[in-house]
């Protein structure tokens, strides 16, 4: 299957192919819901999405590497050196790094702006220097680079028919990230971080100290409900953007929307007990969404084709 995907994408260089396969394994191992959604894409599109995931995952590993004994300062240096090497490779258009080979190839093929990667690494660095955010505007700087730009990077691969598709992809990426923040309040505290804006928590009488008690009090639950309402608003507003993508890509993003934003449904299902339970989308629901989407994706590929394998092949629809 992997070889078929690489062939369909027109990726022929043996070392670059190995890099794409490595990125796919990272996606399969760590991003199970994301990986499931990518299977709905045409085979010719999947390697590029895997590559972008690989970059994000590897950087995340550096930031969250709590077992190596490295300090935040040491990890910041590690991240800075690795990102500097990545940007040097991006400027050259080739890389020898086992992960970055595929990422650089993807960025060059699809003409993905350097500024998206710059914003991403800025946010990764923030995770090593910032432990809380006072307002949503403060948080937005972080989520733009950690989530919104991931959507923006992927959009060219999905061949948008309108420029406004980028704005909707940005909103959907933020919705995905906020849903994770709501689910992972306890895990983030373990890493010394609070991503829910402190000013908004105070509106419900909740402080960081209250969160650190790890008790889902009525006030904490109301604060989480407020954050969930934002996820749903962003999700609703972003729906129209999916229709602006290549028809063969739409079932993938629609399934991802339902699965990722569905995390907040599961938070409600456990009565907001995010400190003692983990809200996960059950496998039966994942399959119930993925199987119909797979049928739609196959039908769309038959009717509209699989799309281009680089930016220069994209034609207006």
UniProtKB/TrEMBL annotation:
Gene Ontology BP annotations: isoprenoid biosynthetic process
This protein's record includes keyword Amino-acid biosynthesis: no
GO molecular function, one term: squalene synthase [NAD(P)H] activity
Pfam families named in the record: SQS_PSY
Keyword Transferase assigned: yes
PROSITE patterns the UniProt entry points to: SQUALEN_PHYTOEN_SYN_2 (PS01045)
Keywords, ordered alphabetically: Transferase
Protein name: Unannotated protein
């Amino acid at each position: 299957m992997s070889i078929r995907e690489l062939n369909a994408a027109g990726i022929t260089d043996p070392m670059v192919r190995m890099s794409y396969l490595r990125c796919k394994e990272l996606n399969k191992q760590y991003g199970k819901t994301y990986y499931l959604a990518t299977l709905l894409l045409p085979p010719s599109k999947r390697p590029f999405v895997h590559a972008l995931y690989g970059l994000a995952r590897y950087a995340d590993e550096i930031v969250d590497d709590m077992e190596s004994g490295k300090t935040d300062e040491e990890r910041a240096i590690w991240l800075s050196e690795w990102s500097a090497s990545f940007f040097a490779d991006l400027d050259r258009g080739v890389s020898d790094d086992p992960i970055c080979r595929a990422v650089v190839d993807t960025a060059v093929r699809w003409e993905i702006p350097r500024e998206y990667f710059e914003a991403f690494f800025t946010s990764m660095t923030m995770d090593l220097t910032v432990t809380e955010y006072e307002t949503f505007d403060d948080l937005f700087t972080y989520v733009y680079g950690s989530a919104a730009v991931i959507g923006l990077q992927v959009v060219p691969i999905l061949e948008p028919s309108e420029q406004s598709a980028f704005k909707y992809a940005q909103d959907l990426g933020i919705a995905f990230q906020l849903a994770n923040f709501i689910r992972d309040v306890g895990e983030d505290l373990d890493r010394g971080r609070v991503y829910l804006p402190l000013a908004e928590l105070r509106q419900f009488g909740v402080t960081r100290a209250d969160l650190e008690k790890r008790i889902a009090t009525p006030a904490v639950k109301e604060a989480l409900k407020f954050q969930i309402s934002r996820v749903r608003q962003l999700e609703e507003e972003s729906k129209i953007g999916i229709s602006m993508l290549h028809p063969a890509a739409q079932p993938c993003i629609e399934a991802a929307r339902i699965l990722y934003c569905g995390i907040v449904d599961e938070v409600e299902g456990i009565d907001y007990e995010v400190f003692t339970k983990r809200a996960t989308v059950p496998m039966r629901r994942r399959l119930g969404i993925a199987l119909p989407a797979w049928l739609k994706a196959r039908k769309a590929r038959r009717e509209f084709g699989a799309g281009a394998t680089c930016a220069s092949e994209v034609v207006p629809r």
